[in-house]
Amino acid sequence: MAIAIYPGSFDPITNGHIDIVRRAKKLFPKLYVAVVANPHKSLLFTIEERVEITKAALVEAGINGLEVISYNGLLIDCAKKHGADAIVRGLRANSDFEYEFQMALTNRDLASEFESVFFMTAKKFSFLSSSIVKEVCMYGGNVSTFVPQSVEIALQKKLRTKK
Ligand code: PNS
After folding, report:
1. What's the CA angle centered on 109, arms 93 and 78, to 5 degrees?
2. How far is the CA of 157 from the centre of ligand 1 (A)?
3. Which of 36, 74, 119 is the pocket-test mutation for ligand 1 (most atoms within 8 Å of CB)?
4. How many domains does the chain contain in total?
């Protein structure tokens, strides 16, 4: 049985990510959702919060039987540690392609044993991103169609403490 790892910042997880998890799990019954601890960008939530929020969101979405893990450093080292065969990523608009292509080829140079597998977004999530969700929530907008309720609550709490 092929094992896959779905990495990301998940700051926070959105309904778009959850859709990818749901679909990837059909092909890869053993799927890890891997939250990066040290991304190249500044984040709203700590690594502990992002792991907890991701776990709660998946439970709320009725997705069970997968592990949410965190990693530091290179993705391929985390993939090796967990015996993964494939790296799962979602693709939204064309603008994702350059970045994903670069990442997939870099990962292949570093470790050719992993196959990168891309899932096309569902049309309704094609312009959804964690950044947009944070911005809308920051200005008091309704994000209930973008994220599960547990994520919305975590966002509102976090943004209140930031004011
Ligand atoms: O959700 P994101 O921020 O687009 O996810 C990007 C992520 C975390 C998957 C990627 O930046 C990553 O794996 N970083 C860890 C460092 C690494 O392995 N870099 C080499 C691959 S380009």
Report:
1. 80
2. 27
3. 36
4. 1
- Cα of 75 from ligand 1 centre, angstroms: 7
Say if residues 18 and 57 touch (Cβ distance below 8 Å). yes
Q: Which residues of 11-45 are buried (b: 16+ CB within 10 A; e: fewer)?
A: bbbbbbbbbbbeebbeebebbbbbbbbeeeeebbb
Catalytic (active-site) positions: 17, 41, 92, 130
Q: To which H or E segment does residue 104 belong?
A: helix 95-110
- For residue range 111-162, what is the model confidence (pLDDT) as tens digits? 999 999 999 999 999 999 999 999 999 999 999 999 999 999 999 999 988 7
The span from the CA of 68 to the CA of 66, in Å, is 7
Range of the domain at 110: 3-162
Measured over the CA atoms of residue 9, residue 90, residue 80 and residue 61, the dihedral's sign is positive
50: pLDDT strictly greater than 80? yes
Rounded Cα distance, 41 and 53, in Å: 19
SS3 163: coil
pLDDT band at 163 (very low <50, low <70, confident <90, very high): low
First to last CA, the chain: 48
